[in-house]
Specification:
Length: 317
């Protein structure tokens, strides 16, 4: 079922969902199931599975020549989605990125999703690969998530890249990313909002936000979206802090602020065990306020670990 149908069906009650990463190459599906199983008691209607593009490595050969090698640490998004739908009977939401994909490859992966009975897709641009510094699209692919969303909409109308056939029309529900504290490449909040609206106008059915620790940033973001005429559901993304180094790592990776009040609490902690507890408590308070505000879903970034999310969900659902 589509994410927006799940939201409609919930009639204003806040749903619980989460996002997992495919395991690293060589690990097994059991790693994933071990993290998902403890969260199933909270009845997630959908589970997101991230997509990780390839990286390039340059290896020096014995003859002195340099060989460019393509590696991918976490392949398997499509297979994992199929396994989740089969094992748990929940809707899997694969992430699909522009980076590294030609339009033909995108079409093929969407055809696979459709064959597998996957009804949702979160479309994203993707980040730059480490060796490149800035994002470069595939020459035959898309530069922005709005273009990728348009390709999905075309397929929903039976328009494939090289042929049209209405009987083959897909019916994907399309999610896109939103940034309460703005996307790091955007010059300001207004420009970022302008392009977010473009994504929604291209056909997005809902928005999932970047993680944040200050609810006011989410509330302001929702206000700005509504004033700009964006009416789709805006799902907040939550990630509990779990180790002290998150104080610097999270702002660095996700380009978000950590409120001073939380930083002071974390700095008081003598070890990561107490940091873990502070992180859980902060998320519980954050989520309680978001539920009171009436958010459609609380979407947790599990990053492959579920114990803290389980403890938070137990307090809320
Ligand atoms: P876009 O919406 O394309 O925007 C990218 C930048 O370009 C923004 O600054 C925007 O303002 C600007 N822009 C947009 N359109 C235009 C235009 N037409 N002209 C000029 N500027 C424009 N990454 C992964 O690799 N895999 C994942 O699974 C993944 N999952 C994610 C899930 C969520 C909920 C979020 C919030 C992020 C996720 N990311 C993932 C990270 C994401 O790929 C990066 O944040 C990326 O840098 C931007 O993606 P986007 O879809 O928001 O890009």
């Amino acid at each position: 079922m589509k994410v927006i149908k799940h939201i409609e069906k919930a009639k204003g009650n806040t749903l619980f969902s989460f996002e997992i990463l495919p395991p690293k190459k060589g690990e097994t599906l059991q790693t994933i199931f071990a993290n998902i199983d403890p969260l199933m008691e909270f009845n997630p209607p959908f589970i997101d599975v991230t997509y990780h593009r390839e990286e390039y490595e340059y290896k020096e050969l014995p003859n002195g020549l340099i060989q460019k090698i393509v590696t991918r640490k976490r392949p398997g998004t499509v297979g994992i989605c199929a396994a989740l739908q089969h094992r748990y009977g929940v809707d899997a939401v694969p992430h699909l990125i522009c980076g590294g994909f030609s339009k033909e490859e995108t079409e093929n992966i969407l055809i696979d999703f459709n064959f597998l009975g996957i009804d949702n897709v979160l479309v994203l641009r993707g980040d730059a690969i480490k060796s490149e510094g800035a994002f470069h699209p595939n020459v035959q692919g898309h530069s922005y998530a709005s273009e990728l969303a348009r390709q999905v909409v075309d397929m929903n109308q039976g328009k494939y890249l090289h042929e049209e056939y209405s009987q083959g029309a897909t019916d994907f529900c399309i999610g896109v990313a939103g940034y309460p504290e703005k996307h790091f490449e955007s010059p300001n909040l207004d420009t970022d909002l302008y392009y977010l609206k473009k994504k929604v106008n291209a056909g997005a059915d809902y928005i999932v936000t970047q993680l944040f620790y200050n609810n006011q940033k989410y509330f302001d973001f929702v206000d700005r979206c509504r004033k700009a005429g964006i009416t789709v559901p805006i799902i907040p993304g939550i990630k509990p802090v779990s180790v002290k180094k998150h104080i610097t790592v999270l702002p660095n990776i996700f380009h978000i602020d950590i409120p001073q009040e939380l930083v002071l609490e974390l700095e008081k902690c003598k070890d990561n065990k107490s940091v873990y507890e502070v992180g859980i408590e902060w998320s519980i308070q954050q989520c309680r306020e978001l539920i009171d505000y009436g958010v459609p879903v609380l979407h947790f970034y599990s990053m492959g670990r579920s114990e803290n999310i389980k403890r938070i969900a137990k307090e809320l659902f």
